[in-house]
Write a structure and sequence with these properties.
- This protein has nine helices and 14 strands.
- The chain is α+β, with helices and mostly antiparallel strands.
- The strands form five sheets. The protein has a five-stranded antiparallel beta sheet with strand order 1-2-3-7-6. The chain has a three-stranded antiparallel beta sheet with strand order 8-12-13.
- A hairpin with a 5-residue loop joins β12 and β13.
């Protein structure tokens, strides 16, 4: 079993968004508030690495108080530029993609599982500054405590069970980002092809961020040529089948808390795609021991959504999916090689174990060797 260990914090940079953008309610934000809202005030609320967040207190037209949550994005030149749908984009476009992608993600989740997510309201650009973008949603009062294991994973499995892809393919209809990096969201027919393109993009982002390393490059090539086909092709061959499911994309203890009013779990900060429900964007973030939500949550999940066959591959599939997660984390922190050291260990484990690739597995299981 390959796990990643990182007990130390990696973020030591100041928030790139000036506090001035949440000192007043911008005109365009005010226009997107529920009709008849009277603004009482805006107050800093919560913590974010790449955005500034606030609570807007209002009184509705019928006199009832209502609070909303505001996230403001202003990307500075120090944040790495990214590719969106294969094209290099400006920091301003990245900022728009961050808030529009979160809005579309939360809208998709809320329409499927409204009890699990806050209601998204709007996204847009500030009237007073066209490089400042915002996401507005319902405010939910939450505790900092970890959500209860069984109800959390039962609701997450329920989300996956009732949210098949609208076109039967892997991807999403708009770009969504992991941190400040766009993830691969183009519609694709096969999980193997989709994940290969996805992790290749993350490889490239990490190399641009941390610099070329010949050992890492060699291991990346082995992951793509041997490990990805070996662990993912059997999911869709030999009479086996999986369906792309709507996944939150960033399930971990920072984005999964407990609603004080209902005592139910709440998930937020989504970056959705339709993917394998076991994938890097859903269960893999629960693998690293640096996260408080861990193995016990994964085991509980499989009580409500069975492991995909071949079931004996599930843990190593999770390690492969988590590799994408850790490489993206490395890309986000230029100059800090802690995550690179961690994912190299996982890559070495997977490439040693699956040196014979898919062909070797198919021969050993007396299955026809099928191309990608």
């Amino acid at each position: 079993m390959a796990i990643t260990v990182d007990p130390e914090p990696v973020w030591d940079q100041p928030n790139p968004v000036p506090n001035q953008w949440i000192e007043t309610v911008d005109e365009n934000v005010a226009k997107r508030l529920p009709e008849g809202s009277k603004i009482i005030g805006i107050f800093p609320f919560g913590h974010s690495y790449f955005t500034r967040t606030a609570k807007i207190q209002t009184v509705q037209a019928d006199g009832t108080p209502r609070s909303l949550f505001l996230k403001v994005c202003v990307l500075t030149p120090r944040v790495n530029s990214v590719l969106i749908f294969g094209e290099q984009v400006t920091q301003n476009e990245v900022g728009k993609a961050m808030v529009s992608g979160e809005y579309e993600s939360m809208k998709a989740l809320h329409s499927t599982s409204p009890d699990l997510t806050p209601e998204p309201i709007a996204w847009g650009t500030f009237a007073q500054a066209d490089h400042v973008h915002f996401f507005l949603r319902e405010f939910v009062d939450m505790t900092d405590n970890l959500p209860a294991i069984e109800p959390t994973m039962k609701m997450l499995a329920g989300l996956h069970a009732k949210s098949s892809s609208p076109n039967g393919r892997y991807g999403f209809h708009v770009p969504t980002l992991q941190g400040t990096f766009s993830q691969f969201t183009e519609w694709t027919d096969s999980l193997e092809v989709f994940f290969a393109k996805s992790i290749r993009l993350v490889f490239e982002n990490e190399e641009r961020s941390q610099g070329l390393d010949e050992e890492v490059q060699h291991l990346c090539n082995q992951i793509l040529s041997n490990v990805v086909p070996r662990l993912l092709r059997p999911l869709e061959t030999g009479g086996r089948h999986i369906e792309p499911r709507l996944i939150h994309g960033d399930i971990w203890d920072g984005n999964t808390l407990t609603n004080i009013k209902t005592s139910l779990p709440v998930v937020f900060d989504a970056t959705c795609i339709y993917a394998h429900n076991e994938s890097a964007m859903e269960l893999a973030p629960l693998r690293p021991v640096r996260h408080r939500m861990g193995k016990e949550y994964v085991e509980a999940y499989f009580k409500y959504f069975e492991r995909s066959p071949p079931t004996e591959d599930q843990d190593d599939r999770n390690a492969l999916y988590c590799l994408r997660w850790d490489m993206n984390c490395s890309a986000l922190y230029p100059g800090n090689l802690r995550y690179r050291k961690m994912f190299v260990q996982v890559m070495e484990y997977l490439t040693r174990k699956y040196a014979d690739g898919y062909d070797g597995w198919a021969k050993a299981h007396e299955e026809s060797i099928l191309p990608r």
